[in-house]
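Closing statement on the glucose-6-phosphate sub-project.
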Amino acid sequence: MRTHLSEWQALAQHAQTARELHLRDLFREDPRRAERFSLEAAGWLLDYSKNRITQETMERLRALARACDVPGAIRAMFAGERINRTENRAVLHVALRNRSNTPIRVDGQDVMPAVNGVLERMAAFARQVRDGSWTGYRSRRPVRNIVNLGIGGSDLGPAMAAEALRFYSDRRLRVRFVSNVDGTHLAETLLGLEPVETLFVVASKTFTTQETMTNAESARRWLLRALKDDAAVSRHFVAVSTNREAVSRFGIDPQNMFEFWDWVGGRYSLCSAIGLPLMIAIGPENFFRMLDGFHAMDRHFAEAPLEKNLPVTLALLGVWYRNFLSAESHAVLPYDQYLARFPAYLQQLDMESNGKGVDRQGRPVDCATGPILWGEPGTNGQHAFFQLIHQGTALVPADFIGFCRSLNDVGDHHLKLMSNFVAQTEALAFGKTAAEAAAEKVPPELVPHKTFPGNRPSNTLLADALTPDALGALIALYEHKVFVQGVIWDVFSFDQWGVELGKVLAKKVLDELSAGAEPQLSHDSSTNAIVRRLRARRYPALE
Ligand code: G6Q
């Protein structure tokens, strides 16, 4: 068990004194603190000096990482070992963006020719859509609307990245994402679209997911209502999947299926064919630049020693707060409107990977695992929940993500944005003492309210501009951070069994909700009553 490790116990001991440290004193005592606790890789600066750590803290955390064999785990992942043991799969998202093209083997077979082959087919298809030569069924009209139908890992990555890289997108094309089984999502998205100008990308690794298949069937009906010929499906639907059989059963031409593999986890699949709608939006060259950024961070992660390793450092800081200073959540605060969906994307990456309660031997874990991850872009969050981070009782370590240059140089907006970015981390770290408040002539009764305790930790992540490669490197940074934390907590980060039970129960409830005759209900009294009410009040009434 992790807490039995002497390195763990040493950290717990060390945390008792570290709890007393204040960032004000740490910075006062060491004028070179920022330099000492800053790292750079793949175009990103990480300044982690505004954390409640000392040199000793970091050394002890790295000792823990070594005791948990983080270096061995990194090697095993890159070597294509079946580290996803509960699903008996290798974990090789790094192969998808292996731009140096060195062989990466699964069961002795190099996967790079297949990876490169699919990327080439994607690029050829994306070019056809972008240059207008992919036209609607029996029409000369080019496709203008691309609607991705997918959910979870088959939605969040491309949806987030299409927003993040919107600056680079072809504005003649409208790329949209429908995920929810709620018919409103599809209905509102299709409103006003011309079927003959619309291409659906059905993105599903398994091609059995209820939400995606329901949306795909409804989209097909919508298309055929207008085009009135089943043959139109093969012109207006393409698929991204590992399930060739189900794809052709749906009526999609296997020529228009873009394949990926079981060693690509859903939430790690953005660089696979799942990225197709993004590639159509921003073009293959920008997509490849994004892969270059991913690869640069992958190389850094695989090669840099622990003390210079950005993903390892972020992971260890997270472990420090979660396990030794009892933080329950972690905020991610991008100061860039294009990154509006980044926290939602990271929520899946982090919480689905490390939201686990048993260790790799199947025993209940003896330490806290993944934190609750949340966030919103700055400066919006400042006018909403930042109050709690500054003066509330919860410790919320935060990552501030920003860029030196804006892609939209409008007046002095960027200077104002970034002045807030800087000021927030400063205010969080150093606060304002009661004496300082009093010196500002704050009425005595208000002094406690206008005092800021400070000592609230943050990381600053800064890149020059939000380019495709900067985005790729940023995503890879978090992917590997989550991986390292999973190793330290000794949980399996690449499965998600916790989502299964609800799916199974929903099937039963669906039968009950849609049954003609009043069904015999055998749930608890609460569930029975809700099912009855839904049936009774559904309008128009069930026959
Ligand atoms: C991600 C999960 C999950 C998955 C969706 C969609 O890591 O596995 O979010 O991506 O359930 O699955 P399909 O791609 O099979 O439709």
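The pocket of glucose-6-phosphate is lined by residues 151-154, 204-206, 209, 212, 265-267, 352, 496 (CB under 6 Å). With this model delivered, the sub-project is considered complete and its resources will be redirected to Aim 3.
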